[in-house]
Amino acid sequence: MSAVEVAIAQANRDRAGALIGYLPVGFPTVAESIEAAVALAENGVDVIELGLPYSDPVMDGPAIQKATQLALTNGFRLQDGFDAVAEITSRVSTPVVLMSYWNPIMQYGVDRFADELKAAGGAGIITPDLVSDEAADWIAASERTGLDRIFLAAPSSSDERLVRAVEASTGFVYAVSTMGITGARSDVDIAAKTLVARLREAGSTSACVGLGISTAEQVREVLTYADGAIVGSVFVSALSSGGVDAVAKTAASLSTGTLA
Amino acid sequence: MLKDELGPYFGEFGGRFVPESLIAALDELDAAYNEAKNDPEFVAELAELHASYTGRPSIITEVPRFAEYAGGARIILKREDLNHTGSHKINNVLGQALLARRLGKTRLIAETGAGQHGVATATAAALFGMSCIVYMGEVDTERQALNVARMRLLGAEVIPVTAGSRTLKDAINEGLRDWVANVDDSHYLMGTVAGPHPFPVMVRDFHRVIGDEAREQVIKLTGALPDAVVACVGGGSNAMGIFHAFLDDADVALYGYEAAGEGHLTERHAATLTRGRPGVLHGARSYMLQDAEGQTIESHSISAGLDYPGVGPEHSWLKDIGRANYEPITDAEAMDALRLLSRTEGIIPAIESAHALAGAIKLGKELGPDSVILVNLSGRGDKDMETAAEYFDLIDSAEKASAEDRKASDKKAADEQNAAGNKS
Asked: I want to staple B100 with a disulfide (CB 3.0 to 4.6 A). Which of A7, A41, B162, B187 is the partner?
């Protein structure tokens, strides 16, 4: 089992399930984003998802777009991402996965990227715009390095594609809760529950739900059927308005939703 | 046969690099398109729209006075500017709108740069009684204000996009985000031969009519195939449309002219195939303008329709296999060509198409007076009057200018053309 799978399984054994927290590297600065990620780990987050800023983030809503755009304007480099992973993993034992659009990885070189991430102590990569059909190079690199490859599954995915996503993924399958983009929503779509049930039928033992989750109540509800709840935009908003302290408080509050 | 390529890959280019949420919609679209293109009823309905709504076939026009500035080569324009809505864009839009109706979709999403594709989509939505939302970079809504008004008059909602470079690339991102959220009732009507499969092949097919008509028309006029076929390339839809019929005519050279903005060696250009390298943008692997770390670089062109840091995957393939040549044309060269065609032939081209005309001037000088060059005049310049008026300082000088002045500036323009040509 990978470190991510272990963390999620353990959270499901000890509590209702795992809380996965997203923050982008370099927002508002690289140093503060590292502090904020550490704060996530120290306040009940089981897996850290670090986003690499990208110029054309089609899966992201306004909150994350604004943050990653600022990081790019401030001169974010991929090396900052590897450095952040190295520092976070040296300070906390929580596994860290990257979330990256495909082009930066492709330009860096898939193998080189995987080696650097592995060396920095990273656990895997979530690829929002890379489906497993196009991922032969990445699947080979993840097999070689042992990094987790986390693909997305959507309410619109056919049964056949869900099987493919489950078989191609390691660590967990990222179940997209709604047909849409990242951002806080007042209700987590009923579609999420149906999707997780379909992923179970497709053989998934580690399905985590993301998009639109922003309260402890929503975390609790999602964990009644899923293995993990992925939260992003609300941490970005907290960091933006109240700094690292606000991220710590938000994480502590959301993690109460993981208590059985 | 090069003509037979059906995707999803053209060599190493193309594919589907999109969020999983969109895959089902792309599969559905691919299946519907493959069914429709073999359905005589669909084919007949589209042909009827071409004939009775768009005004096809579009004519060809030989332009001898203009050609004097192009080394005396015979220059023949394919007049897509005469189509309803003023550009080639309507060909693709009517095809996709028919397909959307077949799929039971009631809402069309489009991105637009210059506004030509947005206007065409708004037109089709009005014709078919669909709702329409058009994403347009804020920068473009300013430089193409007239087209924004046209779209709104046609009943479309125009959303200025304020993210990123606030141009076409960001409008596409926003269109894709909308589609992910509304895929049940909405069709994303992509306006160029870029994007994930099946868009590159489908949009090309809907524009094939340009080259199919022009090939016959030129043979009828001259008795032979042209020596070269030229078009401007932003995303590359009008170029693929006219190139396609000639892909397997080995003696016909194909030239695509990209926007070099202030110069392809400056930082302000949109010369994707000249200066870019392969990457993934907007769902496909293709040449693109990017920095060393894969971040998209913002493009620049006086022409909103060519101001795009990507290009369709089939063009990337045609470049790499050497079947088509791609050259940069600066803002200044394009604007000179725009004025020259206006003054020598009484045809005001779109700034996009003026890049092809500027290319034809250079190419004509290379190929010489015995050559025949077919140019895709993809759009008309009405929408560009504000840009042109500012560029040539027309509003102030019009009151003062006497016929003498005009003659003098005409001569100056011609001298500049010649000087520019001599340098190249």
From this structure: B187
Residues B281 and B318 in one domain: yes
Query: pLDDT of B296-335, one tens digit each?
Result: 999 999 998 999 999 999 999 999 999 999 999 999 999 9
Least confident of A30-34, A48-52, A246-250, B167-171: B167-171
- B2 lies in some domain: no
Alpha helices (H) along A121-212 = 136-145, 159-168, 190-201
Active site amino acids of A: 49, 60
Beginning with the edge strand found earlier in the chain, give each strand of the sheet holding B74-79 in spatial order: B60-62, B74-79, B372-377, B228-233, B253-261, B324-330
Contact A69 B23 (CB under 8 A): no
Nearest CA in chain B to A65: B163
The domain tally of chain B equals 2
Does some domain include residue B149? Answer: yes
Q: Of residues B405 and A119, which shows the higher confidence score?
A: A119
**Domain spanning A3-258: CATH 3.20.20.70:** yes
Q: Do B180 and A153 touch (CB under 8 A)?
A: no
Q: Looking at this predicted complex, what is its ipTM?
A: 0.96
Closest chain B residue to A80 measured between Cα atoms?
A: B293
Q: Which residues of B are catalytic?
A: 89, 111, 378
Query: Which residue in B169, B180, B295 is closest to A180 by CB distance?
Result: B180
CB pairs under 8 A between A and B: 109
Please give the residue range of the domain that contains residue B125: 8-53+88-200
What is the mean predicted confidence (pLDDT) over A116-141? 98
Q: Are residues B334 and B409 in the same domain?
A: yes
Note whether A130 contacts B290, CB cutoff 8 Å: no
pLDDT at B423: 42
B22 and B139 in a single domain? The answer is yes
Work out the minimum CA distance from A144 to partner chain B, whole angstroms: 23
How many angstroms separate the CA of residue B390 from the nearest CA in chain A? 32
Domain-ending residue, one of B170, B200, B230:
B200
Q: Does B31 touch chain A (CB under 8 A)?
A: no
Q: Is the Cβ pair B294, A129 closer than 8 Å? A: no
Residues B67, B28, single domain; the answer is no
Please tell me the pTM assigned to this model.
0.94
B147 and B284 in a common domain: no
For residue range A202-228, list pLDDT tens digits in order: 999 999 999 999 999 999 999 999 999
Which chain A residue has the Cα nearest residue B22? A156
- Cβ neighbors of B5 (< 8 A, separation 6 or more) are B201, B314, B317
Q: Where are the domains of chain A?
A: 3-258
What CATH number should be reported for the domain holding residue B96?
3.40.50.1100
How distant is the alpha carbon of residue B182 from its chain centre?
27
Residue A162 has pLDDT above 50, yes or no: yes
| Cβ atoms of residues B316 and B233 within 8 Å | no
